[in-house]
Amino acid sequence: MEENKYVIGLDLGGTNAVFGLVDENYEIKATGSLLTQEYTLATAFVEDAAEVISELSSVAGGIENIKAIGIGAPCGNYNAGTIEHAANISWGKGVVPICQMLNEKTGIPVAITNDAKAAALGEMSHGAAMGMKDFIEITLGTGVGSGIVANGNLIYGSDGFAGELGHSIMFFDNGRKCGCGRSGCLDMYCSSRGVVMTAKEMLAEEGAQSSLANIPADKMTTLDIFNAAEAGDKLAQMVFRRTGEILGKACANFATFLSPEAFIFFGGVAKAGDWLLKPAKETYDKYVLSLYRGKAKFLTSTLENGTAAILGTAALAWQETAK
Amino acid sequence: MEENKYVIGLDLGGTNAVFGLVDENYEIKATGSLLTQEYTLATAFVEDAAEVISELSSVAGGIENIKAIGIGAPCGNYNAGTIEHAANISWGKGVVPICQMLNEKTGIPVAITNDAKAAALGEMSHGAAMGMKDFIEITLGTGVGSGIVANGNLIYGSDGFAGELGHSIMFFDNGRKCGCGRSGCLDMYCSSRGVVMTAKEMLAEEGAQSSLANIPADKMTTLDIFNAAEAGDKLAQMVFRRTGEILGKACANFATFLSPEAFIFFGGVAKAGDWLLKPAKETYDKYVLSLYRGKAKFLTSTLENGTAAILGTAALAWQETAK
């Protein structure tokens, strides 16, 4: 009888922790969840997590069929197997050796990384980067994150925290103040917050010629701006153009590092599609070193938003089983 | 009887091609050379190169003791085994499949890369990066080059040309015009040319309070500026400070990519030592993401200028024999 092999992908966010039982074809066979924020102690969370995994294992035909657990979490450190100083996880303030803790409870190998790196792994195993060995996944969501793959492997760096391209400084002078304490980071221009900030700045500059002027400033979202752009609103279209221009310049510099086969964009802001990526690519072509011109593709992720995190962490887990 | 194993390291420049017979302890046992610029055809160069290698093989106790050849050359493409559009090699204008050609003449496996990547390999095998798996070698010479090592391997990228950090744009607006056709590249500020340009700009700004004012502008070198700085010349010291500040900002952005264990500086400009690296490190600490602060070392290369290129390409060759 053939052995059934599964992994668990765990998408660990500040609010919810979603567990998926995933097979070798990246099909999600069953899911479970916990409320991350209900716990104040990591030990209590791990105890209940082991319980959920045990329940999922019955679908898998026994715990022995679960070969690895992959976790995607903010401030997840692959090298150390820890969550470090995660501001938005109620029990993640210090350094939590989550992999070791969960391994001790379940007996299953556990690996962790952050959400952008998990997305890159997902892209490589079953998304837009299948077959690629050198690419840069850029997540454009609440923040800007990245997962960098070189020679077919994720780059973790000396401390596990490589690939924070959202905090590459685009404006050393007069840049927008960033949550990281510095100014001018890419994040402040190409995250959903950044795009809304640009819209507000342009509304203040250009006056009320835009339908966006009717939206209360504190309620405006990237989706509103996208809808306005689609409806022909010139200012909204220009917001994405400005955003894309900054993104294109950033990618021109990223190319000098990796000369990637592709930049792959994932997340809410990337859903703006050509409104964003066309000016980004044009600006990239203008600013990139001629040696690289015309080589890298600009792609949108083919991962589904709802399942990307679980399948990305499942890819991390499968990678662990191959070691 | 124990087998004697050697490799050939070939430092292929626009003027000279220097061949070294190198043993497993990175000792150079014999050398030979050709005048690169005397040849107009790659085939003629390769023919004579095979001759030199044959002569060196007698020192090695026979051609069968030479296990691989490593070449370091401008525009050397590891992935393709080619020299591509090398402006300063008389026979390197198109795409020259140098590895295949030399392999056919000698029967020995041949690999190629550029000089900065060869320096990084040398640093890792017998220099300042021994034992490191994630570091960035930055060569500060006539130009600014780089070799990036992640997960213990050089990054070559999708086309073999990854790691052109000298062409990372530091000033998108009002930057110095670069030889690459764009403006504001790191190269234009931290290469020897860049440092001299900064000195001339500052002399124009600050007047003749500096001993550098006595040197004809077209004769000034980085060494002159270094000597002046050592002798207490404030303007010369400030030239290295400005250079270091730009270098430090650049490295702060490079950190978001790799989170390296170290930045290692090689080449003529790096010989300015603390005049350059102290302000570079201070600026780095100021601008780097707090997550990385205090982690990466700023080191000067421990490779000897005279032998670095040969031993770096020897490291490339030894790497090939391990495949």
Describe the SSE topology.
Two copies of one chain form a homodimer.
Chain A: E1 6-12, E2 16-23, E3 28-35, H1 42-59, E4 66-72, E5 76-77, E6 82-84, E7 95-96, H2 98-106, E8 110-113, H3 115-126, E9 135-140, E10 144-150, E11 153-154, H4 187-190, H5 192-206, H6 222-230, H7 234-258, E12 262-266, H8 274-287, E13 297-300, H9 305-321
Parallel strand pairs in A: 1-4, 4-8, 9-12, 12-13
Antiparallel strand pairs in A: 1-2, 2-3, 5-6, 6-7, 9-10, 10-11
Helix pairs in contact in A: 1-2, 3-9, 5-7, 6-7, 7-8
Could you explain the architecture of this structure?
Two copies of one chain form a homodimer. With 323 residues, the first copy, chain A, is α/β, with parallel strands linked by helices. Chain A has two domains: 6-120 and 306-321, 2-Layer Sandwich (Nucleotidyltransferase, domain 5); 131-302, 2-Layer Sandwich (Nucleotidyltransferase, domain 5), CATH 3.30.420.40. Chain A is 38% helix and 20% strand. Chain A contains nine helices and 13 strands. Chain A has helices spanning 42-59, 98-106, 115-126, 187-190, 192-206, 222-230, 234-258, 274-287, 305-321, and strands at residues 6-12, 16-23, 28-35, 66-72, 76-77, 82-84, 95-96, 110-113, 135-140, 144-150, 153-154, 262-266, 297-300. In chain A, the strands form three sheets. The first copy, chain A, has a five-stranded mixed β-sheet with strand order 3-2-1-4-8. A five-stranded mixed β-sheet of chain A has the order 11-10-9-12-13. In chain A, helix 3 crosses helix 9 (305-321) and helix 7 crosses helix 8. The first copy, chain A, is globular. Chain A starts with 5 loop residues before the first strand and ends with a helix. The mean pLDDT of chain A is 94. Chains A and B meet through helix 7 of A and helix 7 of B.
